[in-house]
Design goal:
Layout lengths: L3 E4 L5 H10 L1 E4 L8 H8 L4 E4 L7 H7 L5 E4 L9 H6 L3 E3 L6 H16 L2 H9 L20 E5 L3 H12 L3 E5 L5 H6 L2 E3 L2 H7 L2 E4 L13 H6 L5 E4 L8 H9 L4 E4 L19 E3 L8 H19 L11
Parallel strand pairs: 1-2, 1-3, 3-4, 4-5, 6-7, 6-9, 7-8, 9-10, 10-11, 11-12
The chain binds (2R)-2,3-dihydroxypropanoic acid.
């Protein structure tokens, strides 16, 4: 008999086909995530669970899955939606999909940086609203990248991939990353600084820390007040890393700019102030949304799931 698994959404076919080779698949058919009660009901009696960042995976759900549930495989690198310590306590293996979305996410962070600097969204709106009547020497002036300072908060895989892009644009690069090695950073042309110094010096600030108890609201009113006039905050990690109410207040003064792939909550209501501020760009959590990255994430999640239900070590396990 094949192991049975619950897959909480139609993941890219490459991954789904691989899971089906080995497992009996209960696939949630909806476009929307399963409501929590359905998540619990479908996890009960299964050997494995393949989930997404929109699914709340807590201790009660794990208990519903026991004693059969052996593995939780998340199709994402971030896993703040999962009570990882509770999974470890219960001996349930936990996997995620690091590495394969690094370049795609760095591309999006850089796309947001460029879009904010050169006011791309405002330019598109300007045309759509019929305001393009002539070429004018001071229409939609933006910031320069060459010679500007980029501050990276969190110099992990994705942060370093953003550094590689910024080097090609002749930017000065500074970073705050308590565990980074200053010598290694220097070889990448990166100067390590305290958070406050970074906030005071950077023209563009890009966040690359995972969401956890120590990074929730890492950027609040105080940090925003340290940013230079005209500086841009770019967030492609998780919305709650930024105190969003404080960000809205800072943006409403017109002093800073923001370009966000992630918000708190997601999705953001269409009438939220962030959606209409001219100095803010919001896109719908598409950092890893390249075809290749999503196929690889699905395959990686499939391999973690299969390893877990067949009693093998997970290729990319989240360690306790
Ligand atoms: C992740 O993997 O954590 C991203 O946010 C979604 O791709």
């Amino acid at each position: 008999m094949k192991p049975s698994v619950f897959v909480t959404r139609a993941i890219p076919e490459a991954g789904l086909a691989r899971v089906r080779e080995v497992c009996d698949v209960d696939l949630w058919p909806g476009e929307m995530p399963p409501p929590y009660e359905e998540l619990v009901a479908h996890t009960r009696g299964k050997d494995g669970l393949l989930c997404l960042l929109t699914d709340r995976i807590d201790a009660a759900l794990m208990d519903a899955g026991l004693p059969t549930l052996k593995v939780i495989s998340q199709m994402a690198v971030g896993y703040d939606n999962i009570q990882a310590a509770e999974a470890h306590k219960r001996g349930i293996a936990l996997g995620n999909t690091p590495g394969v979305l690094t370049e795609a996410t760095a591309d999006l962070a850089f796309a947001l940086l460029l879009a904010s600097a050169r006011r791309i969204v405002e330019g598109v709106d300007y045309i759509r609203q019929g305001q393009w009547v002539t070429w004018h020497p001071t229409t939609l002036l933006g910031g320069d990248l060459s010679g500007a300072t980029l501050g990276i908060i969190g110099l992990g895989r994705i942060g370093q991939a953003v550094v590689r892009r910024a080097s090609g644009f002749n930017m000065r690069i500074i970073a705050h990353s308590p565990r980074a090695n200053p010598a290694d950073a220097a070889t990448q042309g990166v100067e390590l600084l305290s958070m406050d110094d970074l906030l005071r010096r950077a023209d563009y600030i890009s966040l690359h820390v995972p969401l956890n108890a120590s990074t929730r609201h890492l950027i609040g009113a105080r940090e925003l007040s340290l940013m230079k006039d005209g500086a841009t905050l770019i967030n492609t990690t998780r919305g709650p890393v930024v105190d969003q109410a404080a960000l809205v207040a800072a943006l409403q003064t017109g002093r800073i700019r923001a370009a966000l792939d992630v918000t708190d909550p997601e999705p953001l209501p269409a009438d939220h102030p962030l959606m209409s501020l001219p100095n803010a760009i919001v896109v719908p959590h598409i950092g890893s949304a390249s075809r290749w990255a999503r196929d690889q994430m699905a395959l990686m999640a499939a391999e973690n799931l299969i390893a877990g239900v067949t009693g093998q070590p997970l290729p990319t396990a989240v360690r306790p």
